Amino acid sequence: MKDYDVVVIGAGISGLLSALALSKEGKKVLVLEKEGYLGGVCRSYEVDGYYVDTGVHAITRLEEGPLRELMNKYFDVVPNFIPFGTYYVRIDGRIKPFPWNIKNWLMFDLLPTKDRLLLMKSLFNTLYMLSIGRDLSTVSISDILPANLSITSKTFLDWLSYFMVGTSMENAPVSRFIDNREHKPNSIPYVGKLYNLLITEGATDQGYPKGGLQSIVDSILNSFPKNKVEIKTNEEVLKIQGNGGIKEVITKGDSYDCNTVIYSGFASNLPDLIDNLPKVYVKNLRSIRKANSLTIWLGLTKNIFKNQGSEMWVTSDPYAWVVPTSNYDQKLAPKGKQLVGFTFILPDEYNALRIRKKALDTIINTIPDIEKYIDMIHYQELIPEKASWVINSGFGDVKTPIRNFYTVGTDAEKRSAGVSRAAYSVLRCLEVMKSDKFL
Question: Which of 166, 174, 248, 258 is deepest in the core (most CB within 10 A)?
Fold first, then answer.
């Protein structure tokens, strides 16, 4: 039996980042992954000559954010990020750039002028609540909205809530929209733009990785120090044993003695893996709500989407976020063709076949000419966030009630979203492990 300093459960992006950081800190790491592949929902694979990602992504806060900090400190091979470009809002067939600042917001005529002024008033009321110390994690977006807003404006805010939080504006906390610009846990919350989609000043520090999401995973794997990390795939964890501290990890095929574990799976599954967890902790984990999504990838024989950037389809049913990834890297599609991802946020319960048809019909109805140019269709049902920011719902944390047992991932940290949120959780985990004298 080999001697490992730490066992990492799960080889998604948060698990791989944890393994890299700990191995570079001198620890010997074992990674256990239940699937036969690495990367989780941060990877790419080939479909009929096209190279699709697991869902559409924009990598945020690349200038000074959490992934940048981890890359600067631990990566030997750094991915090449291409500027993400403009976010375009599509409402009833009209398209305009997303209004990142107040000036652009006042000129954003996809919404009625009266609504824009009312929403500005709501923004200043929110800033006042923040200044007097009001806990905005318990206030929903719908709570602060004027009652006489138009349906279009409400739909616009509902779209933002679903794609930033994973739920409707009735359940989305205002605190998610007033995101933290700094990535240190004790930094002061930043309030700047009207709706700060994870960054400031537009999408200037967002990027798309050349070569697709797989290039991030490959960079991590190529940065592992020699003989410090062992990865075992098709190794599903069935039980984590310990009384007061971690003792053993049991899988379908083996068992591993250990006293330190980083768990990057679903925190909501922990009560099934570990016995005798505190009841309050179990209740919190069981109340976590996941975000469900459907991504439809279309390979097209015509370059229909001309811009380098994405489209926010606000009035489509269901809501959609559209990213033509081959506009960033033509090698993701066969020569002369275009690859486009359409991500739809789904309800907690849905019929897969029905929602697939409805989503594809939405694409065809929005872009009527697109159907005759479809060369490839590929469907992905994914969980992009393991925990949604929902009022009165549970959320995990890096720290757990068990000594030397930590969790990472998008259900362990509330800052930002996607890959950035996963990276935040890893940085936070490293800080906690240092305070625990493990590092």
Answer: 166
Report CA Rg, the chain: 22
Q: Which helix (H) or strand (E) holds 209?
A: strand 207-209
What does the pLDDT look like over 95-146, one tens digit per residue?
999 988 777 888 899 999 999 999 988 888 887 887 788 888 899 999 999 9
Using DSSP, state whether 12 is helix, strand or coil. strand
| Residue whose structure tokens are 């068992």 | 255
Residue ranges per domain, the chain?
6-41+208-288+389-435, 100-196
Continuous segment of H or E residues that includes residue 115: helix 113-131
User: Residue 42's closest CA among 206, 218, 266, 239?
Assistant: 218
Strands of 94-97's sheet, edge to edge? 94-97, 86-91, 309-313, 320-323, 338-346, 291-300, 374-385
Those residues whose C-beta lies under 8 Å from the C-beta of residue 401, and which sit 6 or more positions away, are: 277, 278, 281
8 Å CB contact between 236 and 251: yes
Q: Token pair 């709706």 is at which residue?
A: 195
Q: Give the pTM.
A: 0.93
Pairing of strands 44-47, 50-53: antiparallel
- For the chain, the farthest-separated pair of C-alpha atoms sits apart, in whole angstroms, at 70
Tokens of 137: 């994690």
CATH fold of 6-41+208-288+389-435: FAD/NAD(P)-binding domain (3.50.50)
